[in-house]
């Protein structure tokens, strides 16, 4: 995923440089044309001033002066021509710098903001995307106004596209396939696609912020000379554009606010207790669970969510899976005509907020950890955290001949095969994949067992030998082998940012080493998520897959894969 994004950014930067060079060349041509026009104008003025006051015989006296004046003004180089050359060089440098910044902004928004930007998008498209996300309406001509306004300021009361010279032949295009509500399909009609290719004209893909599923859709009619309407195209808001000598006029209507009241249905799932399955992989209280499920069914709940603990299913030996308790649980859910959302939990349960049971990692993994504690995350003082496996062993065959990601994949594939009938019947509607401590894609930087208390900043967890090996390799690739270390001034678990030399204003985080280290540290996290989710998509092909990320104390399922 990261590699494909870098390629996309590289293409965008090359295109931007080519466009910049063309713009500078056009400016050069305009300067030369303006200079020639100015010289010609001065010549005409000089002749006009001479003619009324001289006779025909005296005109020859002024011709040498005119020729000398013209030669001084249009001579080869001079002070006048040298100054524009310097200005052009400075303009090129400024344009390169500006376009490089724009390319980085666009790359960041494509990668992290999920904005639907064109490859040749400019800063105007960025501003428009940000404004739309903030709830504003941005028309193709740049007119911007709040979405709560009663009417669009654009003029015009009818929609149409007419051709004044030749009849326009339109191609009938089938409508796009139905998609989830609130998710743009990215479908564009022929006119919209052609408009996007034109310089200075951009018709964005309809967004759920601009259109409501309940409001009548605005449309654009394509009308030939004979008056017969040949195609109906969607139009986001009232506007007036000219494309290929054809005028597009939009109908201004009241735009909806950003709420989801118009959605037809919101599914509700209830999380089952963490200890619903005991360490023997049996139902802890079958009768009590059945009563609770019947109560949920009576209040029209759609289904339940349950953790499938790695430490229970594969507890005693590698690739020996016991799904008995989950088989019985899933049968009860199906008999009550409920649905399931399942969590692949590869972390330890116990010791965190909300944990009322203790479910460790598999026993055979703990045995490996006693002989090789480097498989766990480690802080600067050398304290291990057995809550989950270090991401440094994702590609290291230290788990009885398997890597960590191979262990996760084998577990997920066993689940998919064991409960195939529940997938085929649609009982299992979603699978959430655990990616770290508490199932979240984050480092275990704030462990309570190591003395952390809110609002401490925590510590870096990169001191096991496998993470340090990755850091050393990255530092050598940068040509700075002495960077193969963690920050020595980042404080302790309960420090405040301003108390450290690394996180304070203007601290080490903003230096060359700091930026290198933080980039490597975050990239290891992203690479781990990419690996596990790619294998999850392979194991659960055709099923909705999600993952949890940690956003300031809020757990949000994201990264939906189908």
UniProtKB/TrEMBL annotation:
Residues 13-34 have a biased composition (Acidic residues). One of its GO terms (biological process) is polysaccharide catabolic process. Residues 52-73 have a biased composition (Polar residues). Residues 79-210 form the BES1/BZR1 plant transcription factor N-terminal domain. This is Beta-amylase. Residues 83-92 have a biased composition (Basic and acidic residues). Residues 1-94, 143-183 are annotated as: Disordered. Pfam families: BES1_N (PF05687), Glyco_hydro_14 (PF01373). InterPro entries: BES1_N (IPR008540), GH (IPR017853), Glyco_hydro_14 (IPR001554), Glyco_hydro_14_CS (IPR018238). It catalyses: Hydrolysis of (1->4)-alpha-D-glucosidic linkages in polysaccharides so as to remove successive maltose units from the non-reducing ends of the chains. It comes from the Eukaryota. GO terms for molecular function: beta-amylase activity. Residues 151-172 have a biased composition (Low complexity). Keywords: Carbohydrate metabolism, Glycosidase, Hydrolase, Polysaccharide degradation. It comes from Gossypium raimondii. Belongs to the glycosyl hydrolase 14 family. Its EC number is 3.2.1.2.
């Amino acid at each position: 995923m990261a590699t494909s994004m870098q390629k996309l950014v590289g293409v965008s930067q090359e295109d931007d440089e080519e466009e910049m060079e063309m713009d500078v060349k056009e400016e050069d041509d305009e300067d030369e044309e303006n200079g020639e026009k100015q010289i010609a104008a001065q010549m005409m003025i000089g002749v006009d001033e001479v003619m009324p006051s001289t006779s025909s015989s005296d005109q020859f006296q002024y011709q040498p002066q005119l020729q000398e004046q013209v030669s001084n003004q249009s001579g080869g180089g001079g002070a006048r021509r040298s100054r524009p050359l310097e200005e052009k060089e400075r303009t090129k440098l400024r344009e390169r710098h500006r376009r490089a910044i724009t390319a980085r902004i666009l790359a960041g928004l494509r990668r992290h903001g999920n904005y639907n930007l064109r490859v040749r998008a400019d800063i105007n498209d960025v501003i428009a995307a940000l404004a739309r996300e903030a709830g504003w309406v941005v028309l193709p001509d740049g007119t911007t106004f709040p979405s709560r306004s009663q009417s669009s300021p654009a003029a015009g009361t009818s929609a149409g596209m007419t051709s004044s010279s030749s009849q326009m032949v339109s191609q009938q295009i089938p409508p796009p396939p139905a998609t989830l509500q609130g998710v743009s399909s990215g479908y564009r009609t022929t006119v919209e696609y052609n408009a996007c290719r034109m310089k200075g004209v951009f018709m964005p893909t309809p967004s759920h912020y601009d259109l409501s599923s309940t409001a009548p859709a605005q449309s654009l009619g394509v009308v030939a000379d004979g008056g017969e309407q040949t195609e109906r195209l969607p139009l986001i808001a009232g506007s007036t554009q000219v494309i290929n000598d054809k005028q597009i006029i939009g109908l201004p209507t009241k735009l909806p606010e950003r709420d989801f009241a118009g959605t037809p249905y919101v599914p509700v799932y209830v999380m089952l207790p963490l200890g619903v399955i005991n360490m023997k992989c049996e139902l802890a209280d079958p009768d009590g669970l059945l009563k609770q499920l019947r109560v949920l069914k009576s209040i029209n709940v759609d289904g339940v969510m349950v953790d499938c603990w790695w430490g229970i299913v594969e507890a005693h030996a590698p690739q020996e899976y016991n799904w008995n308790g989950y088989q019985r649980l899933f049968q009860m859910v199906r008999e009550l005509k409920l649905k399931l959302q399942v969590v692949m939990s590869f972390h330890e349960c116990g010791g965190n907020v909300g944990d009322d049971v203790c479910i460790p990692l598999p026993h055979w993994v703990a045995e490996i950890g006693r002989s090789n504690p480097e498989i766990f995350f480690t802080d600067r003082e050398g304290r291990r955290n057995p809550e989950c496996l270090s991401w440094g062993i994702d590609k290291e065959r230290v788990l009885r001949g398997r890597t960590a990601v191979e262990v996760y994949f084998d577990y997920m594939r066993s689940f998919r095969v064991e409960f195939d009938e529940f997938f085929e019947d649609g009982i299992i509607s979603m699978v959430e994949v655990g990616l770290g401590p508490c199932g979240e894609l984050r480092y275990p930087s704030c462990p309570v067992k190591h003395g952390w208390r809110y609002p401490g900043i925590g510590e870096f967890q990169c001191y096991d030998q496998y993470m340090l090996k990755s850091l050393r390799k990255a530092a050598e690739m940068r040509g700075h082998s002495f960077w193969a270390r963690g920050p020595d001034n980042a404080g302790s678990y309960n420090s405040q940012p301003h108390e450290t030399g690394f996180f304070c204003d203007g601290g080490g985080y903003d230096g060359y080493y700091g930026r290198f280290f933080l980039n490597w540290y975050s990239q290891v996290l992203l690479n781990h998520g990419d690996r596990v989710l790619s294998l999850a998509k392979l194991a659960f092909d055709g099923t909705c897959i999600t993952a949890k990320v940690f956003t300031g104390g809020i757990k949000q399922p994201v990264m939906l894969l189908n």
